[in-house]
Design goal:
Blueprint (H helix, E strand, L loop, with lengths): L1 H31 L2 H27 L13 H30 L6 H22 L6 H30 L4 H28 L9 H9 L4 E13 L2 E10 L5 H16 L3 E8 L6 H7 L3
Parallel strand pairs: 2-3
Antiparallel strand pairs: 1-2
Helix pairs in contact: 1-2, 1-4, 2-3, 2-5, 3-5, 3-6, 4-5, 5-6
């Protein structure tokens, strides 16, 4: 809960700062005629929206479980990350299309204005990134950071293009750098999108090997086999596991359970487990036969 509270506070602070500067940069981009600066301003507007969404998701994740949501609202963070990744993909497409138009129809750019505003934007993005750096292991924060990094790269592109235009007059550097930034953001956006989708689909966390988890469970004293094993992420950093464990004797089950819990925590960091013990070679109960239609 403390991590979610820290994430919420940092995201709210970043939202206010980003939205405030977005208006300044948009006006400067329109006045100077710079696509890189307008693109950076567009990034900052979408960043402000994304940071606000991430802050709301972090707040929801702190809410306790209810009768309707027994796990609470921890999945809100993964959902926000998925939306932010998809939103960034739309931004990338929009900037790429505008850059292509600028290649065909170059426009005059005021390099000096671009340099000054882009420099201020670079500083602000660095401050926002510094405020959020502690939560990069969280999908929700990563989705917000993706937009901030996009802005940071946009500020660098605007700064470089403004300097080149100021000293050489070569305006094509503006859309050229914008396309380069789009390529970088495309890779990060697609990766985050599928990671968030994987978590929402209750996929096995990518850093875990289900076969290795099964082997550790089966290696516990008194355990004969394991079946119906499921491992998924409740939220970033919190992993859940459920399984049916076939044992030789139910009498020492409390000790076996304690041993398994210790193994899962030590080897894989899994601390939310639900295990169903079953006797080895136990005949099916009448209710099992009835449910299967064989009674």
């Amino acid at each position: 809960m403390s991590h979610s509270h820290a994430h919420h506070h940092g995201l709210s602070w970043a939202f206010a700062l980003t939205l405030g500067f977005a208006g300044v940069e948009a006006v400067a981009g329109w006045w100077s005629g710079s696509l890189a600066l307008l693109g950076d301003a567009g990034h900052m507007v979408t960043d402000a929206f994304s940071l606000g969404l991430a802050a709301v998701a972090a707040w929801l994740a702190r809410r306790p479980p209810s009768e309707r949501h027994s796990y609470g609202y921890v999945r809100a963070e993964a959902l926000a990350a998925l939306f932010n990744a998809a939103f960034m993909l739309l931004v990338v497409v929009a900037i790429a299309l505008e850059a292509w138009e600028r290649f065909n129809t170059p426009r005059p750019v005021m390099g000096d204005v671009v340099v000054v505003v882009a420099l201020v934007g670079l500083v602000i993005n660095l401050v926002v990134l510094w405020r959020l750096h502690g939560g990069v292991g969280n999908l929700n924060v990563r989705g917000a950071v993706l937009h901030v990094v996009g802005d940071l790269l946009g500020s660098v592109a605007a700064l470089v293009s403004g300097a080149v235009i100021l000293f050489t007059g070569w305006t094509l550097i503006d859309p050229l750098l914008s396309l380069f930034i789009c390529v970088l953001l495309l890779y990060a956006s697609v990766r985050l999108f599928f990671e968030a989708l994987h978590e929402l689909m209750s996929g096995v966390p990518r850093h875990l090997d289900l076969t290795a988890v099964r082997a550790v469970l089966a290696d516990a004293a008194g355990v004969r086999s394991v079946h119906d094993l499921h491992v998924w992420s409740l939220s970033s950093g919190r992993i859940a596991l459920s399984a049916h464990v076939v044992v030789e004797d139910l009498q020492p089950w409390p000790e076996v359970l304690e041993d398994i819990a210790c193994r899962l925590k030590t080897h894989f960091g899994i601390d939310h487990i639900t295990l169903q013990p079953e006797l080895d070679g136990k005949a099916p109960l009448p209710c099992d036969l009835a449910c299967s239609g064989n009674l």
